Amino acid sequence: MGECEGEDDIISAANYIMKVLELKRNFTNDTRQLLADLGSQLCSMANMTETDKACEEDDDGDDGAEDLSELEYRLIRVHDKIMTWELTQSTIWDSGSDEANDYLEAVNEVRKLTVILEDSKLIKNGKGNELLRKGYDVLQTSMARLEEEFMHILVHNRVPFEPEHVSFRSNEEDVMDSVSTLSFDESIEFVAQRDSSMSVSMNINRGPVDLVHPSVIPYLKSIVKSMFDSSYDKECTQAFVSVRREALDDCLFILEVDKLSIEDVLKMEWGTLNSKIKKWMRAMKIFVRVNLASEKWLSDEILEDFQPVSSVCFVESSKASIMQLLNFGEAIAIGPHQPEKLSRILDMYEVLEELIPDIDSLFIGQSGSHVTTECRDILTRLGTCVKVTFLEFQNAVASNVSPNSFAGGGIHPLTRYVMNYVNTLSDYTETLNVLLKEEDGSHSYFQSLISVLEINLDEKARLYKEESLGHVFLMNNIHYMAEKVKGSEVRTVLGDEWIRKRNWKFQQHAMNYEMTTWSSVLSLLRDEGISHSPNSNNSISKKHLKERLQSFYVAFEDVYKVQSGWSIPDTQLREDLRISTSLKVIQAYRSFIGKHKNTLSDKRIKYSADDLENYIFDLFDGAPRSLHNSHKK
After folding, report:
1. Structural domain of residue 240, as residue ranges?
2. Domain for residue 185, yes or no?
3. Which pLDDT value is given to residue 544?
């Protein structure tokens, strides 16, 4: 009786300590650990007492009973070690590597015991079944603990992602940003100020970086091995995928990639979308070549002994994040084919095309085939979008009409828009050669686009009532086109012969301007048509001479009043035309005055040659002036 009461007292004391700990009293860690150890020892004593009692009741010659008792004893020992940790809130790894290794040894011991019991004839014994169930319970408890431990270590030992090793530099001035919210017809009314071609340069240090502190990798691998050996591989991989998927989502957040549906993208204003595309290009390169490369390395390192599973885990971890990036590309590809988007779509195409080999090397096998296939599909759609957008851009240029002439005859915004665009597109010559099927190197897509522009400009020139202003308009625009090509990469595309032809064209228009403007004016300074005095020997009538000179002044003043309001934006072209005009006009004027100086009195000479020359150098400033009632300079 006394012995039984002693056993009951031990059990009661052990249970009491366990309940106290379960109530989570405000003990210090040392006190909690001390009580846990005491409770464990009391449980062991009670269990050992029960075992001894059972052994005494069995037949001394029963070898099976002896084996069963030994297994039960071993199971009790590992049970106590594992259950002790269930009473603490700290993680095993945080308690030190020795504790972590002891725990893993206990787990491995439980697994071995369950295997022995499963394979042993002892399982037919009622006691054997009870021990096997207890072994399963302990193993399940330890696996749940290891799963929590595994996730805790992955989360709390994550290396923060700070893309400081990635330098992002853009020398672009956003040729389309200033007109980003306008339609094509509206945006050509805005003069694009950027002339240099757009380029985006990113220097990325390739190779994996640490996503988890290296010191915990061995312990993580030990947990993986223990869980896989215990047939808890599904729980282990699910935990790994869950943690790493969240980590990759955080990386996208740091890279400023928003979660957007295709509908969200399609509704977005171009100004906002333009910014999103630039962030996408930067994020895509960093995410694939840094984040995903590192993620693949981490998966292979932790799941080193389970390589097929490693690849599947990597795909499952990263699939959602890479698809988030690819879905944005798909939304751009199926969106409206607005001309101002063309260079950005080309940027996206080239970025994705460049990254496909990297993606292929990461997403291998059947598990990764969905991602690699999707990448190629979106690349094809972006390429189709480029072709359609280019053709629509060309059609928009051709169909850009106006009922009114362009004031001043300067460089039309359409010309600036198209030539800036051509300069921008010259950065993508190789890609356009492939997408627009110009493998023969003729680059006819550039030539055809500019030809459409030239035809459009000819139509616009016909809107001018003054023929000479039409020539100034074409001279300005063709000269601008030639200069833009001459000073850019487009020169290598179109060739010097193209430039020579345009130089000849704008010079012809300059000559035609002088002829249509000044021929009739200068004819007034010639003697032809002036009547002669009847009382003198072949002398010119003074009256007719004065009338002719006065007519010249009126004609000159009319030209000055009108053409001072015309515009030649290019300084050198403006000076050249002024000089050429001055040489012709001033020479004719001086010759006329000199020839008839004896006939004309000084009061009839309204302007000196220097006066007229100064007035000619007022032309083409874009500010109309008047010479009426003006004094001599």
Report:
1. 163-390
2. yes
3. 83
